[in-house]
Amino acid sequence: MSAERFVMEGIGVSPGYAIGRAHLVDRRRIQIPKYHLPHDQVESELERLEAALAQSESQIQDVRDKLSDAGEEHGLILEAHQLMLRDEQLVHATREAIRADLINAEWALKKVIRSIKQLFDNIDDEYFRERRADVEFVGSRVLRNLLGTAQPNLSLVGPSAIVVAHDLSPADTAFLMRTAVLGFATDAGGKTSHTAIMARSLDLPAVVGLENISERVATGDMLILDGASGRIVVNPSPVELARYQRLQLEWQNRLAVITASRHAPAATTDGVPVHIAANVERPEETRTALEFGALGVGLYRTEYLYMNRETLPSEDEQYAAYRQVVEDAGPSGATIRTLDIGGDKFIEHLKRNRELNPVMGLRAIRFCLHELKLFKTQLRALLRASAHGRLRILIPLVSGVEEVRVVRALLQDCRDEVVAAGHAVADDIPLGIMIELPSAALIADVLAHEADFFAIGTNDLIQYMLAIDRGNEHVAHLYRPLHPAVLRVLAQVVAAAHAAGIPVSMCGEMAGEPGYIPVLLGLGLTELSMNTVSVPLVKSVVRAISMADCRALFSELSALVTTAEIERRVALRTQQLLKDLPLPELFSHAR
What we know:
Elements: E1 6-9, E2 11-14, E3 17-25, H1 42-66, H2 72-84, H3 88-101, H4 105-121, H5 126-129, H6 132-147, E4 161-165, H7 170-176, E5 183-186, H8 194-202, E6 206-208, H9 213-216, E7 222-226, E8 231-234, H10 238-260, E9 275-280, H11 285-291, E10 297-301, H12 315-329, E11 334-337, H13 347-350, H14 364-370, H15 372-385, E12 391-395, H16 401-420, E13 431-435, H17 438-442, H18 444-447, E14 453-456, H19 458-466, H20 484-500, E15 504-506, H21 517-523, E16 527-531, H22 535-543, H23 547-557, H24 563-577
Parallel strand pairs: 3-4, 4-5, 5-6, 9-10, 9-16, 10-11, 11-12, 12-13, 13-14, 14-15
Antiparallel strand pairs: 1-8, 2-6, 3-7, 7-8
Helix pairs in contact: 1-2, 1-6, 3-4, 4-6, 12-15, 15-16, 21-23, 23-24
């Protein structure tokens, strides 16, 4: 065990502090044998592949059975892995490679996995891009079974350990939750990797995107993990250890107070109310969001109805899901986003040709307007659900006025069809647009007269503006929401909405980061939507500051010209404004 002290910087994906000994989970690359087959061995090689697939599915089922009470999210992720083992794109392509190239199953599978991962790299949506790791996890399991190599043994990981790995599969993370680990640190991953998602759902600190921590840290090394700033201190000094132990205790005590006051209204000290809603991905999450203090659903992502299945969801199935979200959301209502997905993900259903660059291709509203039958099915389901509560419809990836007008016309056509079929429909269903493309942001003043409301999607907007793939651990540190250009564009969008008298909210991850709240309020945003677990903390931040101070802060920022200057000023002023609200370090860049 090395006693060397050093610090590593990654992507903080689940806030909080973990202090404990490292346990390295060895996921070294599998050595793949490569050899050509004589024609008469092809069938036996195909049988060997089928046996490995069956064994892999059985192993995943065993994990699902053991974790049946660990929560639905874990079960759904593992179910998705089982479905991959029957996926034509993975399995059929591997069979064809064995037949056509006369190569062994391991080599064929590795080639197919590489090609699928390259396709995922071209997908713009970060959540779906992170699913390339799922393909690798499933492929690794099949490869180990083909080779007769044991799967990684996690039973040796004891309680009070900080798990260090190149990456963790959903099965790994679900298993480790049973061992009372303190946190996770991985080389790979981004904000929406499964390690990040599960860590947040379990309220465990986690840092991902560290690139090579699994090579630099050994089992037994003492670690301090800061899940907010993304900092890892390896073999800290006694002084550092004592400091972080104090911070950890303060954080835990404050979280208890924050949680207890989660249902208190969110209003600034000078009386400005702020609407805090939640982003949800499945209908059943709505009630949980309200239990955390959220006022309704600010963003329901409908694409999850289409994932990991062999057929498209019917109108009735979608109607049932949307109705549940709207009813459970209560008086505050739900904003439901139409399908935000690219053509590549419907290959099995629609047999579309693949695009060389899906990032700039047929996705989100472009895809829906190309596949009108699919889109109108969703619109009819949404219209029917509107009769059961307050519903707003949100269009993703709008680039100009034409798309909004076409959707309005389609909505009217669908309304006529739904009413003719004898279904009730609400009289007023606001139609909003996501501001996530620079083109939309630049003509926000024009779009504000076409849409009933704006929802700013900072995840994509910032990536498009800065040309940064924040899921790529090599450049993720360049993803800086406080870049002067980003703040300027956000101010322009908010001003356009206010001038037109329409509501404007933010539903990107920036809205759920406590350190950004004074900046967002200073911009004039008073409607925010975020992941459920962030709601209590953000509400407590709002209650601790005045709108006057937030406006003064934003005014100060307009005179600064570099991201680093802005981050330092925000960190300093936020710590002053929130001095009675202990928070993790806000920006690693601001040090």
